[in-house]
Design brief:
There is one protein chain. This protein is α+β, with helices and mostly antiparallel strands. It folds into 2 domains: 37 residues, no CATH class; 142 residues, Alpha-Beta Complex (Nucleoside Triphosphate Pyrophosphohydrolase). It is built from 3 helices and 10 strands; from the N terminus they run βββββββαβββαα.
Length: 198
């Protein structure tokens, strides 16, 4: 069973059984039996494995935040979010590859790059929905960013209808009015605030 490498059995945790229920190139669904510190007889659980992701907060020299408006099929809506994308499984534990994925998504989805002398600041990682999935995303702040000479480079499955920079005040208002309701974006903003980066 290949849970993400950094998800290890802690004291009192033991994986006893793992059966694949479904698998495709994007995710794998397992039925697992696990002993936990409080459930020594074990518990059955359905776990969805998905590739890790990289989320990048693009900030301009003026301090504005760049968002993309992307169509999301599961919710039948185009929503505002920070650029994000999956990390190849074979490099998912390599810091340089994770940073590379963040910069790739910045360029491909938003059409921006780091300016000369800019920095990509790590803001840790978070689990998207740990009740059923081991999926996690690494969070980065890229500043300052400038438009790329080549513009956006979307892959065939992406539909981004807009890309715009918003002031921090506009961004906060969009959160307050529920115009921004993407978990990656909300988490990245919360982490920025907690770290004093905004």
């Amino acid at each position: 069973m290949s849970f993400h490498q950094f998800i290890q059995d802690g004291a009192g945790w033991e994986r006893e059984k793992c059966e694949t229920q479904f698998e495709n190139p994007h995710l794998k669904v397992w039925n697992v039996q696990v002993r936990t510190p409080s459930r020594t007889d074990g518990v059955n659980w359905t776990v969805v494995h998905r590739k890790a992701g990289a989320v990048v907060v693009p900030m301009t020299a003026e301090g504005n935040l760049v968002l993309v408006r992307q169509e999301r099929v599961p919710i039948h809506e185009a929503i505002w979010e920070f650029p994000a994308g999956q990390i190849d499984e074979s490099t998912a534990h390599d810091d340089a590859a994770i940073r590379g994925a963040a910069l790739r998504e910045l360029r491909e989805e938003a059409g921006y790059v780091l300016s000369e002398g800019g920095e990509l600041i790590s803001m840790g990682h978070y689990f998207t929905s740990p009740g059923f999935t081991d999926e996690h995303s690494y969070l980065f702040l890229a500043k300052p960013v400038v438009p790329s000479d080549s513009g956006q480079e979307l892959d065939q499955n992406e539909v981004i209808t807009e890309c715009r920079a918003f002031s921090p005040e506009q961004f906060r208002a969009m959160i307050a009015s529920n115009e921004i309701h993407d978990a990656n974006t909300l988490c990245a903003f919360a982490r920025m605030c907690a770290m004093g980066l905004l």
